[in-house]
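Recap from last week: sequence in, structure out.
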Amino acid sequence: MAGHPTFPDPDDHGSAPPDHTPRTPGVTVSDTSPAHPPGNAPPLPEAASRLLRDHGVDMPRLRRVLALLADGRWWGADDLVRGTGVAYTLVSSLLKALDEAGELAAESAGRQSRVRLARPSGYAGAACDDLADPVAHLLPRYARAHAELARAVAEGPASDLDLDHVTATAETALRRALFLATRFDLHDRVLLCVGDHDLTSIALTLVCPGARVEVVDIDERVLAHIDALADRLDLRVRTHTADLRLGLPSTVRGVADVVFTDPPYTADGVELFVRRGVEGMADPRRGRVLVAYGASETTPRLAAATQSRLARMDLLFEAVWPDFNRYHGAESIGAASDLYVLRPLTRAPAPPSGDAARVYSQGVNAKEARGGLDAGRARAVLDRVREDLDGRGAADKGGDGDGSGDGSRTAAEGSEPTLVGEWPSEVSAAGRVRLSTWMDAPAPVGDCAVLNLTGGWERLAARAALASAADTVYALVPSSAACVRDAAGQRGLRALVEPRFRVRFLRGFGADDLTAVRLTRRPPDVDEPGAGALGGSGARAEEGRGEDPAGERAQGVPDAAVDLLLVHVQERAHGTLTATLRAGLVEVSARGGRPANKRTARQAVSTAPWWLAGHTLLDLPEHRFAELRGVAAALLAQV
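Predicted structure tokens:
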């Protein structure tokens, strides 16, 4: 993958560069732009001069707004914000004052309103010089990379407000990459992107093909998009699914040389994402953490609180580049954020000081959001669990059950269910397992586990179930959760946990707004070829995958054998896929009467797709699950 055929070096100087007309600090003023130092500028109308004087030493920021208005065109307030990096509150206040002074003309079309200067010639002296940009001189040499990024951003998934997504511009992704590649030696080194909705990973590997990038994110759409881009452009990017509130996947801990993150803009969110970044570094004291962070200039205490958190983590502020990052949205903070360059001073940061579960500014995981279970609802849920287990046990004994029983001992006949996640003390006196512990390593569990995934954890439903060693699992989620609210979501969840589990969706479970996903282990003697694999029900390796040499090699492998191998892997979800597949090949081949030794299994797994290595089922991106059945069939064909 090193030596990319399209982007190993800067583009030819003859290439047409993108338009980099100046707009904010961090975006250089071109040589042909009219730049009048304030001392030599033609005088502004008295109303405008008074407004600028009242703004104090920060006057040049408002001059940017006047400089845009001076062209005489119609402008919306949001357009002025995006063009200058000035917070919406200040822009709207300035427009209001100019309107009251009779300096503006206005028009409205539906909900849209626009303004322009009534006498723009009087504002010819509004423009002034800006600070130099650190990478603007490099941009014209990477026009082709910019075009690829513009296409990638346009085709990318929509923002998820529950995750505080606001899309960065393609030029911002390129500028980040140029800053990283120029400031640091990243050839054959690892950048860890802690969240990457903005495609910084793709930008860096376009600019610096010798770099390797590991991406962790909870948004499966983002990971699928990045993998598709990396496959098409032959870039050295690997993706991992992770809920950062619980920790980093083990395979990306201690591997990175440099970290980049554009976290949720809350103090807790910034601290959490930066902390995960430091945990991912091979030697934090020799690396750097780059953070995109912004706050409105009208709320400096928010930025001060965040910076205090970073300082308490023993992070040195080497540099802060104002307004370096630009966004399609976030006008409340000027549609811009600063770039922080942080240097860790210790190997491990100080203990966390915030709430790791509520790190976002809006949606189900915001501090203001309501969620979780109170004591009454928790008791009602557990009563339903016992009733359901009792009913299934009786039905199994009578031979007229729902087909999901396997004759195993139920909680009513044995121990109480193992509680996982946040449970009120009134119902968890016997103890509970933290969700972070549950996902990090196999936990002791009885015959039944009840997972409380309300309060913003519902994205983990399938993976948390796979992490269980219990015969029966109840995953409790809000009925509005994507994995249960419609047929498409339910099919998607089933595809991730079958063939190991049978799945039923129990609505109104303890409360009208709750749904329990009941997952029961399939009996080991059940032989249902193709009955729902990781990639879908009965899907053959070659179906829907175009030319697939692995699928061709796998012809003639019984579906039942593939299911056995997949179940072996699913029952060891915390283990690396390469290790569990090797052991599974030995076991399944022996059961089929054609035993293979460990060496043969190891050689077979060495031919598996490159993306398999370094993953467990718990951090494998969801779109890769669809390929596992074909991989399993191809491996079995070799032994």
